[in-house]
Amino acid sequence: MDEIGRAYLLLALNLERHLEGFVDAYFGPLELKTQAQAGEPRPLDALADDARQLVAAVEASDYDPQRRDFLRRQVGAMAAVVRNLSGPQLGFSEEVELYFDITPEMTDEAVFAAAHAELARLLPGDAIGRASRLVDRLVAWRKRLELAPDRIFPVFELARQETRRRTRALFDLPGGEELSQRLVKDQPWAAYNWYLGNYQSRIEINTDLPVRASSAVPLMAHEAYAGHHTEHAIKEAARYQAQDRAEHCIQLLLAPECVLSEGIADSALDVIWNRADRAAFLRDELYPAAGLPGIDVGLQLQIERAAEALRHVDGNAALLVHRGLETELVAQRLGYRRHQPLAACDRGQRAKEHAVLKAPGLHHPLGGLQCQARLARAAGPQQSEQPAGRILQPGADLLQLLLAPHKGRGLGRQVVAGGRPGARHRPQHTPRRRQSGPDLLVQGGRLGVGR
Hints:
Blueprint: H1 3-16, E1 23-26, H2 30-37, H3 44-59, H4 65-86, H5 92-100, E2 102-104, H6 109-122, H7 134-144, H8 152-170, E3 178-184, E4 191-197, E5 200-206, H9 216-223, H10 228-241, E6 250-252, H11 256-272, H12 275-289, H13 297-307, H14 312-322, H15 327-334, H16 343-353, H17 360-379, H18 398-403, E7 414-416, E8 440-443, E9 446-449
Parallel strand pairs: 2-7, 3-5
Antiparallel strand pairs: 1-6, 3-8, 4-5, 8-9
């Protein structure tokens, strides 16, 4: 590992001591982590100097242009975090731009109105009981899809096996890669992938929230195959182990890489599935295993697609809260569009109060748009109802297609608005809380008891 790599890792690890949760995963040299954790935290003004010196070293390096650009943007994000912690605090939009290299903009509320109308068409008043309010009909529909506690692991294991099989048919996963699952409580997200290094991940599923059969395949695609776990394992093998690129043994939450990582995960479902194949798998295998053989799969997938646009409500709520609009007024203006009148506004308020919560409703959708655009360019005019990945050759270079750092301005200052977001299971980045519920594990298909 060269001096630039060591300096990059030390800057991030030292910054983690000022902002817990900034480093989402680290599997690099232990001695660097020990060095960063020793004694008092390195002062912020010293970290600002470290960032300036690191940018200069990157610019003077003989790295290829794409790698220099990636590192410059990553270090720039770390410098912005240091600046914000040092005070005075940055404005919300400036902060998002400096951290993620995107410009937040409001999504036209007509997008939400159209989604609302489509959901009303799919769930008329006499379809789910005779509830008069759409929110009640949607809640009743989703209630039908909830899993009994003893069905959660078998159903999610079935989803893991099939998404892994489809991913391995397309991409060369490192030998020995593996995944475990755990049920947890008292977390601010529905599910989370913890990448542990050595091609291993642990997915935690929050049972404080309803766990639905309909979420098993999208969640597993997003968090594992061909989403976060697949990305991180391939990067570790091809970039860190094979090329000794230090920047790929650490994962930062407040940096441009987070946008593309979420985009890869949001696009994963469409990379490995088409709608017809997924409908057949749900109807013939997964829903019977869930004890739900009578679900109208076609209707469920239409409802899922219609509701996707409502993810952008969170981004609008965050922008309105940061522009000074009272939470109650934001709830009145936007909350009902998501059928969770206070949830989106509460997330916006918490984003205002804690840096690691910044813009979850912003970088997820834009990341998805970026990766879907790359897939479209790779597919060319022959796009069809085939899964995006099927247009590629088996063993295709996923790194070059999706993971390569953006060129030129890349994500630079593109706006967050509209588009088709993908999976929705990593909605918040927050300080980590390790309290868990029953530590049941699935490891490679085996049920066991975790520690």
